[in-house]
Amino acid sequence: MSSTPIKSVLIVGAGPSGLLLALLLATLSPPVKITIIDAAPTLNEAPRATHYGPPAIQLFRKAGVLAEIRRDGYMPEKICWRKLNGERLAGYDRSLLHDGGLDGDGLTVYWVGRLCRLLERELKSRTGTTVKWGHKVVDVKSGLKVEDKEVTVVVEEPEGKTVDYSADYIVGCDGGNSTIRRLMHGQRNFPGFSWDVPIVATNTLIDLDQFGWEDTQFIIDPVHWYMAARIGPHPDPKQNVWRISYGEKAGLTNEELMERQEMKFEQMLPGHPKPSEYKILNKSPYRVHQRCVEKMRVGRFLLAADAAHLCNPFGGLGLTGGIVDIGALFQCFEGMHKGLADDSILDVYCSVQRQKWHEIINPVSTGNITRMFKQDPDKALEEDETLKMIKRAETDLELSKQLQAMANELVYDYTKHYSKAAGVEGAARL
Ligand SMILES: Cc1cc2nc3c(=O)[nH]c(=O)nc-3n(C[C@H](O)[C@H](O)[C@H](O)COP(=O)(O)OP(=O)(O)OC[C@H]3O[C@@H](n4cnc5c(N)ncnc54)[C@H](O)[C@@H]3O)c2cc1C
User: Fold this and answer.
1) Which of 10, 43, 286, 418 lies at a C-alpha separation of 20 to 30 Å from 253?
2) Would the pLDDT of 423 be above 60?
């Protein structure tokens, strides 16, 4: 199947991954017709991603949006693990990797709702492309077979009418409940598992600086395990917004989870605050999962980000991993568009991105969540290998830098497979 140059791409899902892909594809010449649709009436403002690692920052720079993200976000410095009583066990200083300052790759905090608004605005102002909100993919007519010349899906428009949408390729960026994934893979479409324990994520205005808290802390405790991360700094500490995400008991309904929030805060947070001492800006319960699809490409259908793989949010690998997919897919499309690769490079995409999830994202994120609730906090510094290494890195700055730079291992250079003459047969060796 050859596809040079690409004439059109249909992106399903206007979350951060779909919008970023649209913005990158808009830089290709000759122009690619980009259609981006989303089933929801408007952007999702739930409290989700806030922290983006270096690979995501590199792609924000490439898309020309990093300056604004750095202007309105911030670069956290200190991260640590503590016991419930506040005792600090180990941690590191992220500013060691802030070499390039505001232009560098350092980890950055920026609310995902803001990110989506920024990407949508840039897409519109640079290309005139607007998101078709309220447009839902409901079925497929063609594109799942290798020999299909294009992809056609059935889209339900806001007033209920169904219309066929066709393109050279379709990219499912439609999140954890992806319809595109189901159309590609049928019922058994998402191997992996869901954690028994639900989590509750809140954005909370509270003064945790009075307790000497760092930018991010993970609290190790079998019952009251949680993360508290500063997500909006302010000169007046009382104005800081914190992402407080905590684990809950299995088997509770969403209503019960929400009702228990005041009790949980009083029992687990330092100072045992009453509701009058903080203000909840958003709160939402989540079920969390470790899942990865078996194929990210079938015919002219592709998957990226949450539609392809999920992990628990502790450590911020969810969207960072999704954004790495977007950078990878863009490099593949760019090579095809310029005639430097045929579309077998998309099979390399499928193989490499899955491998990165299985070898890095899944084990690291699993370690991040279990570290908080599956061990005795009093023995964590003797028995938890990762924590022991982080403790060693407190006095070994080179080790600290190495540990923190590991997120860069998610990135793969697809231009290695560019070669007009040779094609991309090397793909098969991966
Ligand atoms: C509490 C929490 C905290 C998190 N924190 C971090 C963090 O700090 N760092 C990090 O990297 N990640 C984090 N994550 C993960 C991150 O939020 C997700 O990985 C990210 O939002 C996924 O983006 P996406 O674009 O893939 O999908 P989504 O944002 O889910 O967007 C999918 C879009 O597809 C649309 N859609 C669905 N079905 C259809 C259809 N049939 N037709 C058309 N449109 C459709 C939906 O309406 C939606 O707008 C966190 C997650 C949670 C829950």
Assistant:
1) 43
2) no
> What is the percent of the chain where pLDDT is above 90?
86
For ligand 1, what atom is nearest to the CA of residue 17? 25
Sequence-ordered list of residues with C-beta below 8 angstroms from that of 110, at least 6 positions apart, any chain: 50, 52, 69, 72, 73
User: Does ligand 1 have an atom closer than 6 angstroms to the CB of 79?
Assistant: no
Nearest CA to ligand 1 atom 52: 48
Taking the centre of ligand 1 as the mean of its atom positions, its distance from the CA of residue 174, in whole angstroms, is 8
Cα–Cα distances (Å) from 210 to 226, 244, 262, in that order, read 19, 16, 20
Residue 429 confidence (pLDDT): 37
Q: Please, is 219 exposed, middle or buried when counting C-beta atoms within 10 Å of its C-beta (0-12, 13-18, 19+)?
A: buried
* DSSP characters over 48-105: ---EE-HHHHHHHHHTT-HHHHHHHSB---EEEEEETT--EEEEEEGGGG-TTGGGS-
Dump pLDDT digits (tens) for 65-84.
999 999 999 999 999 999 99
Q: Once rounded to an integer, what is the mean pLDDT over residues 402-422?
A: 87
Burial status of residue 16 (CB atoms within 10 A of its CB: 0-12, 13-18, 19 or more): buried
How do residues 41-73 score in pLDDT, each as one tens digit? Answer: 999 888 899 999 999 999 999 999 999 999 999
Cα of 95 vs centre of ligand 1, distance in Å, is: 28
Ligand 1 centre and the CA of 196: distance in Å? 21
How far, in Å, CA of 287 to CA of 327, rounded?
Answer: 27
